[in-house]
Every structure is written in structure tokens, then in C-alpha cells.
Amino acid sequence: MTRVIISSAKMQAICNDIRRSRKGTIGFVPTMGFLHEGHLSLMRKARNENDKVVVSIFVNPTQFGPKEDFKKYPRNFARDKQLCKKENIDFIFCPKEEDIYQRHHSTTVSVDGLTECLCGKSRPGHFCGVTTIVAKLFNIVSPDTAYFGQKDFQQTVVIKQMVKDLNFSTKIKVLPTIREKDGLAMSSRNSYLLSEERKDALVLYETLQMLKRKIKKGITNTKFLKKIAYKNIESKKTAKVDYIEIVDLCNLKSLKKIATKALIALAVKIGRVRLIDNIIVSAR
Amino acid sequence: MTRVIISSAKMQAICNDIRRSRKGTIGFVPTMGFLHEGHLSLMRKARNENDKVVVSIFVNPTQFGPKEDFKKYPRNFARDKQLCKKENIDFIFCPKEEDIYQRHHSTTVSVDGLTECLCGKSRPGHFCGVTTIVAKLFNIVSPDTAYFGQKDFQQTVVIKQMVKDLNFSTKIKVLPTIREKDGLAMSSRNSYLLSEERKDALVLYETLQMLKRKIKKGITNTKFLKKIAYKNIESKKTAKVDYIEIVDLCNLKSLKKIATKALIALAVKIGRVRLIDNIIVSAR
User: Fold this and answer.
1) B223 found inside a domain
2) Is A158 helix (H, G, I), strand (E, B) or coil?
3) Domain of A52?
4) CB-count exposure of residue A237 (10 Å: 0-12, 13-18, 19+)
5) Are the Cβ atoms of A135 and B166 closer than 8 angstroms?
6) Is A253 an 8 Å CB contact of chain B?
7) Could B161 and A106 be called an inter-chain contact, meaning their C-beta atoms sit closer than 8 Å?
8) Is residue A38 part of a domain?
9) Chain A residues with CB-CB distance to B164 below 8 A
10) Residue A125 has pLDDT above 80, yes or no
11) Å from B259 to nearest chain A CA?
12) Is A10 domain-assigned?
């Protein structure tokens, strides 16, 4: 049975009780809802590995910039609930904004050094919003393991750093990006795309694959690789590059040459829709 | 038996085990060591109210400013250990700095609005250091209740706000300031005072008592009260006022008039030693 919990105090009491009465491990999948196959893969893994599974659905206002899409972010709780039921999730935690950010809320959790680059550059404050809400959710749910998708690679690096630095006892697992048949990374924001844009959106995946082939052929100069990626993306009518970066997997610092492994991460505006994607590559 | 735990991983494992095996509640007294009767009163309360008691001893570098007394802060672990044994404390947690702040540590917890006034004004960054270490310690120890002294009133307000905002399930208890026979608030920093300074240091308590009497007599204009307090303190040769403030108990904002309850808080340099004290007063 899937129970829907709205109150954070109640959710915390339930999870404390699970802890104290040795009812087993808690797996946690934090989401902003409008669930897709990417979320479902996290939920299935959590279900498979834990006695109890909590999925949170909360469109967190503090991780959106003032000009971003908080208000129009897609929401469909009825559908999300059905999907959670189908995946045999124990608890859907869907708190109200005024429960999570009570009057006079004034505490933030922030990670320096990993949050200024990549998405942090064009979304200042975004990761502070993310780490603050994740810290709060971890304290409410006290999960043994929390599951995140690789599509938000920078987010996973930032959260791992926060977990280590603040001594959370939660283990972080990162699962592969789930893609549409043609390769487009699953994202709730894909629902914004008009039909022409949907075609152009494939350029993110295609560009990553193209770079992967170049690297396999021995091209490791990142300036060159970024240049051809940029050209490839901007050949699409509706596409505008926010960033293309080739960075170290651990510290997210730009690499001049790909020596061993690297992350290729990009953000592209397709019309008014900002999409991200990434792959991990290895020099041969 | 009092066990000394140095590793944060081990401390966390022990506390998780206490949680999971229903060995009862955990009381927690975070300290910077050099224990005095103020700490002991917290330890006794914790001992009285909990099945297990953890006392942490960690001189936290990040809450000291670059020109402050981190290096010379008084330390005496052997004596602290004896005192903990005598109070029947279960665990002394005394981690090394390199365990708590590992390489690349880059996460901070900060509370806005309550941390810029009073001690925050002359100690920028201090409360960010405090909230970050307390968040870490809470995640390591996962206490049911944590005990703090009223002497650090602003610290208790800031920590309560953090606990509420980040959904920690720890309850915060604040116990009265413990004083020397003559009224000087107990502090590890009192050990710095030379004999002449020790006499002058009494002016903090005396001034607070003097203000209390004035308020009892119906004087509620804080500008006037602060003026006479200032004059009283600076009449001592070695004393220099850092601040005298009369503020709201909840939001720490300055009051023009004392309507009901208020906090009188002050910080005074006695020679090179910065001391703080406070009392809660009520208009008649």
C-alpha cells in the first residue's frame, strides 16, 4: 500500500519509528514530480534494495532563479501517485511549501567550489537551494540510501560533498541517465518542447556521441572538442549553447586534455527550454 | 564506564547502533572542553534525562576569527576526562581536526538574520562556524536532546533556528548560566584573566544587575539604560565595551523600550580577554 504523507512532522515520525523499531532500511528518491522513466529506474532500484521506500515530490522554489520556470514547472500528482503505486512505493512525501519553508526560515546549506561552474554559472543560487532542501529531506526521512540520476551529474557531486562534509549517514547512489528511444535524456522539462524543438533537442545527445567518437579516435584537446560541439549544436535553428565543458569527474575543473576519464557536460537552450545532458568518456 | 571515542565514523556507528537497537535516548553536550561548572550542569541534566550521554570536546577552529584565541584556547583533556567520569558520562567524543574537517571540506550551514547582530558584529563568520560544526555533530551523534548554556544566548537562538529550519529531530534545551560565587559567569576564558582583571571582570554581572534594578523601578528607555551601563563598565581601568544591547528574546532585534520581556546582552574586553554575559529582564 502506498501512503501519501503531507506533513513533514508526520513523515519524520514515521521514519523515526521505522528506525527505532528495526523495521529495516529506508530507501529514498527525492523528486520534483512529473515522474518519468528516469525517476522510475531510481524507484525500482530503491524498492529492490530496501525494506521501505520513500519518494518525495516537492517542486522546491529555492532552487529556481527569479526568471526561471518554477511557476510553470509541470505537475501532475494524480499520475505520479499512480506510478508510485505501480512501483510499490511505501510512502509518497508531498509537503506544502509553507510546511517546508516556514515563516522566518533563514538557514541555508551551501557547498563552495563545486557549485560555481557548469550549471552554477548560469543558475546562481541553484545548488544552495538544492543542498538546503536535500539536507532538510534527509533529516526528515533519515534514509539509509538516497538515489539520484546521473543526468544531474553536478548535483550528485555537490550532494556527495555535502553528505561527506556534514557527516550524513545516508549513502548516495547514482544511476545511469535514462533516455528516450532516440537518445534524448529523460527530463520533466521535455514536456515543454514543441514538435520542431523536440527534433532539435536531439542535438545534445548527438553532440555528446560525436565527441565520444572523436575521443575514441585519439582527439583529446578539449578546446578543439568544445569548438566542434558548439558548431554542431548551434547549427540547429532553435538551439543556443549555455555551456559545453569537459571536466574532471571529481572536482569538476576544466581539463585542457583528456588524460584518462572525463565528464562532458552541456546545457543548451532549445527555444525557451533549457536542457542538460552529460556523458563520461575515457581517452583510449 | 566512560569511553573515549576519537573517530567520527566510530562515534556515528555507536550512536546508530543505540538508535537501532532501542537502547534508549541519547543526550548530547557539545563543548570545547576545559570544562567548568556550567558544562557540568548541562552534563548532569543530560545524565538525568537520558539513557546514554555523549559529551563532545572539540575546539572548533572555524568559529574563531583569524585574530582570535584558537591556538591559545585553554585545553586540559586529562582533567576533562576525570570530570566526565565523575559525572558518569557514557562517551567522550574528542575528534581530531583532520577527521572533522577533511581535505576539500567545503560545506557550510548558515543562519541569516540572527547572526549579524551582537557577537556576530565583532565576530564575523563565528556563527557560521558554530552552526556548521553543530550540524555535523548532530549528524554524528543523532541526539534526542542537546544541552546548551544560556550564557551563549545568541548561540542558542541561532541553533534553535537551524534545528527548526533543517528539520533536525533533536530537541534543544537551554539551562541557566552558572556563576562564580561573586556572580562572574563561568567561562573557560576566565582562566586567561590576571588578578586585577578578574576583579574588573565582575563589572559585567554588576552592570546587568544594576540595569535589572533600574528596570524594576520602571525605567524602560533602552538608550538611557545602555548609556549608564556603558559608563559603569568603562569606569573600570581594564574594561572596554564591545557591545551592550537590549533586544527581543526571539529575533534579537534592538528594542527602544522594554515592554514585557527582553534580553540584556553584553560583551566586554577585560584587558585582552573578551567576555560575554546576559540576563533576561521583565518590565514591571
Assistant:
1) yes
2) helix
3) 3-175
4) exposed
5) yes
6) no
7) yes
8) yes
9) 102
10) yes
11) 22
12) yes
Chain B positions in Cβ-Cβ contact with residue A112 (cut-off 8 Å):
106-108
pTM of the model: 0.97
Q: Are the beta carbons of B105 and A165 separated by less than 8 Å?
A: yes
CATH of the domain at B266: 3.30.1300.10
Please report the pLDDT score of residue A23 as a whole number.
Answer: 74
Final residue of a structural domain among A154, A175, A196: A175
| Residue among A49, A92, A265 at smallest CA distance from A177 | A265
| Backbone φ and ψ of A274, nearest 5° | -90, 120
Q: Is residue B277 part of a domain?
A: yes
Interface test with B, best of A139, A164, A252 (most B CBs within 10 A): A139
Within this chain, do residues A113 and A196 fall inside the same structural domain, yes or no?
A: no
Test mutation, A12, A166, A168, chain B, max B CBs within 10 A: A166
Give the amino acid at A247: V
pLDDT digits (tens, 9 = 90+) for B186-198: 999 999 999 999 9
Place of cell 572548533: B60
Question: What kind and span of H or E run contains A146?
Answer: strand A145-149
**Picking from A18-32, A129-143, B159-173, which range would have the lowest pLDDT averaged per residue?**
A18-32
Q: What is the ipTM of this complex?
A: 0.96
State whether the Cα torsion A39-A41-A45-A47 is positive or negative.
Answer: positive
Distance from CA of A199 to the nearest CA of B (A): 40
